[in-house]
Amino acid sequence: MAVIKKEKRKGKVNIPTASMADIAFLLLIFFMVTTVFKVDTGIKLTLPSANEVQKVKRKDLAIVWVNESGKIAIEDKFVPMEYVSRIIREKNIETNGRLVVEIKADKEAKYGYINQLFEQLKKAQAVRVVLGANVEGSRG
To answer: Judging by DSSP bridges, how do beta strands 100-105 and 129-131 pair with one another?
Structure first.
């Protein structure tokens, strides 16, 4: 019996790579155009609004100043941070709980000083605290 051998072709398969760069750029453009980026919306915050404005009597107001080096002044008298809670508590008792504490801080004051002041006001049980701001162009 005669065996017939098939001849195997030993040809190289060529894949055309000339248009690979074009395809890569087209894919890149496609993904850039169709990609959706998540936009960070931030913290949802509901700010309070006022229906009416009440004038605060001068005797019911305590202005607390904080400078850039962390020194505290209450009613234009410098006091150590440790005494703030005692002084504010006494003023709150004098005003029968109507005391409003206004904090005015230097714009260069570090947040740590303001945080310490808030902790002292919390110890003094001061519940009516406002942050004062200067109107653009005004002094003091």
So the answer is: parallel
The mean pLDDT of 116-138, rounded to a whole number, is 81
Q: Cα–Cα distance between 140 and 133 in angstroms, integer?
A: 10
In a domain, 27, yes or no: no
The CATH number of the domain holding residue 92 is 3.30.420.270
Backbone angles phi, psi at 130, to 5 degrees: -125, 150
Helix axes 84-94, 111-123, angle to 10 degrees: 50
pTM metric for this prediction: 0.58
The mean pLDDT value for 29-46 works out to 83
Is 83 contained in some domain?
Answer: yes
116: three-class secondary structure by DSSP: helix
In a domain, 138, yes or no: no
pLDDT confidence tier of residue 54, bands split at 50, 70 and 90: confident
Phi, psi of 62, rounded to the nearest 5 degrees: -120, 120
Kindly report the average pLDDT of the chain as a whole number: 83
